[in-house]
Amino acid sequence: MSTVRSKPRDVLLSGALTLADTSDRDARLLGIAAAALQTIGGRKAVVYLQEAETGRLEPAVAIGLEVAAFQPLDSLDEESVDATVLASRERRTQVVVGRRERRAYSALLAGDEKLRGAMHLPLVVESSSSGPEVQGVLALGLEDEPPGERRVEILEALAGLAAVAAHDSRLELALTERSDWFDRLAHTDGLTGLANRRTFDRVLELEMARAARQNTELAVAIFRVDRHGAISAAHGAHVGDNVLRRVAASLADTVRLVDTVARYGHDEFVVVAPGSAGLAMARRVAELVAGVEPVNGDGPVTVTVGVARFPEDGRSAEELLSSAERALRDATTQGTGTILAASGA
């Protein structure tokens, strides 16, 4: 038997107060989903949020079940008959009655014989520049017949509040990332023009948070200029500085726009590279550095490199850097010009 339904006015007030009383995205979404369940007398709900860049629908919060039970979905999949995908793609509410319809199905119905259907409401905000923007989907399990017109209006109003909560969170994140970008530009190394250590530490934290949020990989590579101390001692500090500048230029020319390269120590540089190609990137850099003009006939400039990957080599910035530094030490024992991953790959 379903739970008692709340009065529409009380439900809307509950949703509005949730939006006003907290700035935490997940708390807002949970409160609004709970208000939606009160409208229909239900007990199960899940909120998906849509990644603006990829179109992927990620389960964010759930009531009455584990959010981990739901898989990410591709909102751009034109062949999908998942009601969540359809609600996002068509920007209108999808209702699934029974265990399955010809047109759509709902993951909410899996393994729950008490549910008679499901509603999937798109979370849409109006943008002055680009029109309607989908922020995600609110999915509700139905234990009775689909709600009438009046309650559907209440549910759609609550979905609008959830869309605002998701949109606000996205704007806040974008503003934070942009502020950090300008902060990065303001903190560079005076000798090489690269980011300095302070900026690198902040960027690493941001990139690790992004990788964890999007469930992607991230590589950190530390480059040590071989024999830099001997070069400076033999030919002067200014020659050693020129070598560092040339290596820094090689790094800047080789890495991608999404990568961040910084001066890490006196004769060390570090690269933060989103994705899984950290080792390949390190090899490209080493090859380019080898083309740097030799110093007074001393032979080519080389670098020794240690590479670590998130999350397998560390789940915090400190752990990841420790793994990269350990790989660099191990590489040093094998000889100049060695490139070594923390896992030994």
Produce the secondary structure layout.
Layout lengths: L7 H14 L3 H16 L4 E6 L5 E8 L9 E2 L8 H8 L3 E4 L19 E11 L3 E12 L6 H37 L11 H18 L3 E8 L2 H8 L1 H18 L5 E6 L2 E7 L3 H12 L13 E8 L6 H17 L5 E3 L4
Parallel strand pairs: 10-11
Antiparallel strand pairs: 1-2, 1-6, 2-3, 4-5, 5-6, 7-9, 7-10, 8-9
Helix pairs in contact: 1-2, 1-4, 2-4, 4-5, 6-7, 7-8
Overall shape: it is elongated
Number of helices: 9
Radius of gyration: 27 Å
Low-pLDDT segments? none
What this model shows, in words?
The chain is α+β, with helices and mostly antiparallel strands. It has two domains: 8-171, 2-Layer Sandwich (Beta-Lactamase), CATH 3.30.450; 187-341, Alpha-Beta Plaits, CATH 3.30.70.270. It is 43% helix and 22% strand. The protein is built from nine helices and eleven strands. The chain has helices at residues 8-21, 25-40, 83-90, 149-185, 197-214, 228-235, 237-254, 278-289, 317-333, and strands spanning 45-50, 56-63, 73-74, 94-97, 117-127, 131-142, 218-225, 260-265, 268-274, 303-310, 339-341. The strands form two sheets. A six-stranded antiparallel sheet has the order 3-2-1-6-5-4, with helices on both faces. It has a five-stranded mixed sheet with strand order 8-9-7-10-11, with helices on both faces. A hairpin with a 3-residue loop joins strand 5 (117-127) and strand 6. Helix 2 runs antiparallel to helix 4 (149-185), helix 6 (228-235) crosses helix 7 (237-254) and helix 7 crosses helix 8 (278-289). The radius of gyration is 27 Å and the shape is elongated. The mean pLDDT is 87.
Produce a short descriptive summary.
The protein is α+β, with helices and mostly antiparallel strands. It folds into two domains: about 10-170, Beta-Lactamase (2-Layer Sandwich); about 185-340, 2-Layer Sandwich (Alpha-Beta Plaits), CATH 3.30.70.270.
